[in-house]
Design brief:
The chain is of the alpha+beta class and 351 residues long. It folds into two domains: 205 residues, H-NOX domain, CATH 3.90.1520; 116 residues, Homeodomain-like (Arc Repressor Mutant, subunit A). The protein is 53% helix and 8% strand. The strands form two sheets. A five-stranded mixed beta sheet has the order 3-4-7-5-6. Strands 1-2 form a two-stranded antiparallel sheet. Helix 10 links the parallel strand 5 and strand 6. The chain is globular.
């Protein structure tokens, strides 16, 4: 089972190697990676090839923290094709659970685990262990650069998703000894070596931290997700329209015209094709907004202003009016009613 990562995770490779007066194309070819693929940031690359590339680059350039430096170059690309996970998640915990399931499937086949331990949460990375297990009697792989790169990319992704408030408590590394002295500078927390698994240690409460779907830096990620969605020819028109609504709402661009543009058709054509299915675009949008509003209001977070933004309203007053139309009362009262219902069900289940 080949483990793969998106080529976008090599964003900044050319620039980083060039800073050290190296030859990026030679290093790529030496690791059986196409320079053209990395230039275009298209498709997927076997994790084993990326591991070889990182190890050779660190050695050739005499740069012991090469993996972390490359991870630092990422930005929103660090979230890869996890657009669906971002859109479906209200909190960091929900995102991690959705992303872990997605990464376990082809073409990634990457194993990550989220565990609760007392007041802490452990995000454990088994990806490199699985890579080592697949060598079948070959010479042991040098994996330290790859470990640091995957952890660095993961931290960058979580920071982009949750904003500046995201904070680790500690980092665990299986490596017996440090390769350099940049760990605490990069991760911002103590790093412990010789541990059982590579892991991030977080406070359990951080899993309740809301994600920032409206963060402008995530727009390229959502655009990438939209492009992938539209390439899935087997997906029905209604399903595509619904998914585009989910994508475009937080960007405040969720109109019939914009959805038609994304689908490459005239808006009247889209209206007619939906009408043939007894559907109206505005009704679909309103139905999805109501469903998401009910979901968002069922817990203490996020704040009303963020819910309004995620539903694509430009003004808080527009969200308030929509709540009156849907539920007959204010968003705050809806939240109190929904939370009381959740508490009552939990009390019944605990008996």
């Amino acid at each position: 089972m080949t483990q793969q990562i998106r080529t976008t995770l090599l964003t900044g490779f050319y620039e980083l190697v060039s800073q050290f007066k190296g030859n990026p194309e030679a290093l790529l070819l030496n690791s059986q990676i196409s320079p053209q693929q990395v230039e275009s940031l298209d498709g997927y690359i076997p994790l084993k090839s990326v591991n070889e590339l990182l190890d050779k680059s660190a050695d050739h350039l005499n740069c012991a923290d090469f993996g972390l430096r490359l991870a630092h170059s990422q930005g929103a690309a660090a979230l890869g094709s996890l657009g669906a996970a971002v859109l479906q998640s209200l909190t960091l915990g929900e995102f991690l659970n959705t992303a872990i399931k997605q990464l376990a499937n082809p073409p990634y086949n990457l194993r990550v685990e989220l565990q609760k331990k007392g007041k802490q949460a452990l995000l454990r990375f088994h990806c490199v262990d699985d890579l080592q297990a697949g060598t079948h009697g070959e010479a042991p792989l040098a994996l330290e650069q790859c470990r640091e790169f995957l952890l660095g990319v993961s931290l960058t992704a979580l920071q982009k998703l949750c904003g500046i408030n995201f904070q680790l408590e500690a980092v665990h590394l299986q490596s017996e000894h440090p390769l350099h002295d940049e760990y605490e500078s990069f991760f911002g927390v103590p790093v412990e070596f010789g541990r059982e698994k590579d892991a991030f240690i977080l406070s359990g409460s951080s899993l309740l931290q809301p994600t920032e779907k409206c963060n402008p830096s995530l727009r390229p990620l959502l655009k990438s997700y939209i492009d992938e969605l539209l390439q899935q020819g087997e997906v029905s028109l209604v399903k595509q329209v619904q998914q585009l609504i989910y994508c475009l709402m937080p960007l405040k661009r969720c109109s019939l015209q914009e959805v038609a543009n994304q689908l490459g058709m005239h808006k009247r054509t889209l209206q007619r094709r939906l009408r043939d299915r007894n559907l109206v675009f505005e009704d679909l949008l309103d139905r999805i907004r109501r469903e998401r509003a009910e979901y968002y209001l069922s817990g203490k977070q996020p704040p009303m202003s963020q819910i309004s933004n995620m539903l694509g309203y430009r003004e808080q007053s527009s969200f308030n009016r929509a709540c009156y139309r849907w539920f007959g009362t204010t968003p705050m009262r809806v939240r109190r009613q929904l939370m009381a219902g959740v508490a009552a069900r939990e009390a019944v289940n605990s008996e």
